[in-house]
Amino acid sequence: ESSKKIDCRCHVTVICYFVTPNQVTIKLHNEHSHLVGSLDDISFLPLSNNTKEAILQKLREGYGRRDVRTAIQRHFNERIRLYGVHRDQFVHSEDVYNIYKKVQELSYKKHNEQKESIKLWLKDHQQQRGYFTYIAQDLEQSYIFGFVSPWQRQQLVRAESFCLDATHCVSNIVNVILYRHSITGSGSPVSFFFTSDHSMIPIARFLRFIKNLGPDQQLPCLKKITIDVSAAEHAAITGVFGSTVSIQRRLFHVSRVWMDQIRKKVKLGSVSANNAAHRSMMAALKDLM
């Protein structure tokens, strides 16, 4: 730890003799390699409980982490001018963040064990807000669950198409179903699905759960689903919806494959000619889409 890498050669011996138990002899060996009592010297000591409580109170009042640190340091700098150097004069951003993290955890953790906390959250949302929840039977061994709000269900039932978006670049466990909102024109999430298993089976089971939310366990308006380039997603959709729903790839992924192939196979005399031909061909292919 940084707090122990002082490299100071000085050490202290304390001797207490049996005949004089009320007296001790303190002997200093070698010289300190640092200034005893300086801020650098005490920076790795823990904050006082009073300071931790003050930070916690500021966070509860809605102060930002940077504002909390500034306010706490300003307060203790006034005290230290009167009483001398103290560890509380040197409040690290990590000190505030560690307490902030505990406050955040208290707000969302319903159980110390993560999967039990998930079950309690889903149960509360189901009972208090009318959410539709999905929990895999083997949740203890896997990490598979999802949920849909009443409003999201209404959009799903009416949707003619939606997009299955796996956000692996952000988190490898989150999958979101999006549909194009009729008013905003942008993507709106209509369900959330969490899984650490990226195979076809958990995706198919969740899609079946989504399908069963509709009248007569069907999504009567659904005609098309957009996916990434994923064999597992393609197989899951085919297994659940059959031929009643068409599958399309995103233009981004399709155009990227096209561009890779064009660059490999279309080679002209110069770089500028290559680039011009590539741009022209990509524009024509996108028009076809």
Summarize this entry quickly:
With about 290 residues, this protein is an alpha+beta fold.
How are the secondary structure elements laid out?
Elements: E1 11-16, E2 24-29, H1 39-42, H2 49-60, H3 65-83, H4 93-108, H5 114-129, E3 132-135, E4 144-148, H6 150-158, E5 161-166, E6 174-180, E7 187-195, H7 200-211, E8 224-227, H8 231-241, E9 246-249, H9 251-265, H10 271-288
Parallel strand pairs: 5-8, 8-9
Antiparallel strand pairs: 1-2, 3-4, 4-7, 5-6, 6-7
Helix pairs in contact: 2-3, 2-4, 3-4, 7-8, 9-10
Keyword list:
single chain; 289 residues; alpha+beta; 3 domains; 7-stranded mixed β-sheet; two-stranded antiparallel ribbon; MULE transposase domain-containing protein
Give structural notes.
This is MULE transposase domain-containing protein. With 289 residues, the protein is α+β, with helices and mostly antiparallel strands. The chain folds into 3 domains: 106 residues, no CATH class; 136 residues, no CATH class; 33 residues, no CATH class. It contains 10 helices and 9 strands. The strands form 2 sheets. The protein has a 7-stranded mixed beta sheet with strand order 3-4-7-6-5-8-9, with helices on both faces. It has a two-stranded antiparallel sheet with strand order 1-2. A hairpin with a 7-residue loop joins strand 5 and strand 6. Helix 2 crosses helix 4, helix 3 crosses helix 4 and helix 7 packs parallel to helix 8. The longest helix is centred in the N-terminal third of the chain and has 19 residues. It is elongated and about 95 Å long. The chain starts with 10 loop residues before the first strand and ends with a helix.
